[in-house]
Amino acid sequence: MKKARVVVVGAGVVGFSTAVCIAEALPMCSVTLLADKFSPNTTSDGAAGILLAVEFPDIPLERQRRWFKDSFDHLLAIAQSQHSPEAGVILSSGWQIFKEVPVDKLPFWSELVIGFRLMTDCELKRFPQHKFGQAFTTIKCECSSYLPWLENRFIKAGGEVKQRKVNSLEELSSSYDIIVNCSGLGSKNLVGDTQVYPVRGQVLKVEAPWLQHFIRDGDGKAYIYPGIHSVTVGGTRQEGDWRLQVDEEDTRSIMERCSRLEPSLSKAKVLSEWVGLRPNRKNPRVERVLVHLQGCRVPVVHNYGHGSCGVTLAWGTALDAVGLVRQCLNEMLLEAKL
Ligand SMILES: Cc1cc2nc3c(=O)[nH]c(=O)nc-3n(C[C@H](O)[C@H](O)[C@H](O)COP(=O)(O)OP(=O)(O)OC[C@H]3O[C@@H](n4cnc5c(N)ncnc54)[C@H](O)[C@@H]3O)c2cc1C
């Protein structure tokens, strides 16, 4: 039987996770991944890669819990395997601290990470500006290693990779049966989504091998995440800001905020600075639609708009996307029979 031709647009963590999941789960499909930018030049490459979720307002919590759990379990298995250093996936323990006690003391993901507990007063003494804290072990997934690792896995599963900018979905409709859109912020132009917008983030990589625990301020404006080769120090959350160049004032204020939490950072050597644009949306878009392209109805599966949680949720939303592609295939089969 002829294979169904599936194209995945996007080579960030969402695109590659989705492409791998489809190629491995649906052998009746030939899968091609198209993107204009690949590792190390995607947003995903510079993400700190810590698994931590925010709560999206209009997506059932059960679905968000499943996205988190599927991603966590998948990455935990890698972190505990021989592939950990090569894939850039490690366990990471530390503290999330708050200046004011949050409404949600126990976030929905608290039972999905390892050993979640509230910090004791004694532990909090170290952070005099903070009243409340959570201690847990999560995962750090470094996409500059993880994306090439996923690409290899995709190719082993029979996938094909091509570098190309897609200007409109019409360009794809004659060569592919199903289009899977994982273009992140690119969806603003590619599918005309006015709901997706950038939230600029600037981070530094520093050399500080003595740091072993992460520290994150609950407001997301100060975090210190030790990784395999360096420590990621951040950050900023500038809504609607498209600037990709490093801002020296941001660097100064990041170091100031983070040194307040971890004074030894003043001894750390700055290795690099980086800016990325989070593909924010009120809710990520993980859904199937039929689009009229060149006189035909073409199934399109969207999977984008993960904001600050793309690394955290990529595998979970990729599994949902596989289910949506499967539904497209069933409908195509049914139509062929009628
Ligand atoms: C400073 C910072 C820190 C972060 N820290 C974390 C963290 O700790 N944990 C976490 O979970 N998340 C974090 N994030 C968020 C995370 O980086 C994003 O959610 C994630 O990278 C989104 O992945 P993506 O694959 O959707 O998009 P991207 O990585 O941006 O990939 C989009 C892909 O689509 C392609 N594309 C777009 N348009 C087109 C087109 N027209 N034609 C062809 N190709 C196209 C691009 O070339 C690219 O390959 C952070 C982000 C920033 C900026």
UniProtKB/TrEMBL annotation:
InterPro entries: D-amino_acid_oxidase_CS, DAO, FAD-dep_OxRdtase. Residues 5-318 form the FAD dependent oxidoreductase domain. The keyword Cytoplasm applies. It is found in: Cytoplasm, Cytosol; Peroxisome matrix. GO terms for cellular component: cytosol; peroxisomal matrix. Belongs to the DAMOX/DASOX family. This is D-aspartate oxidase. It comes from Monopterus albus (Swamp eel). FAD binds at residues 43-44, 166. It catalyses: D-aspartate + O2 + H2O = oxaloacetate + H2O2 + NH4(+); D-glutamate + O2 + H2O = 2-oxoglutarate + H2O2 + NH4(+).
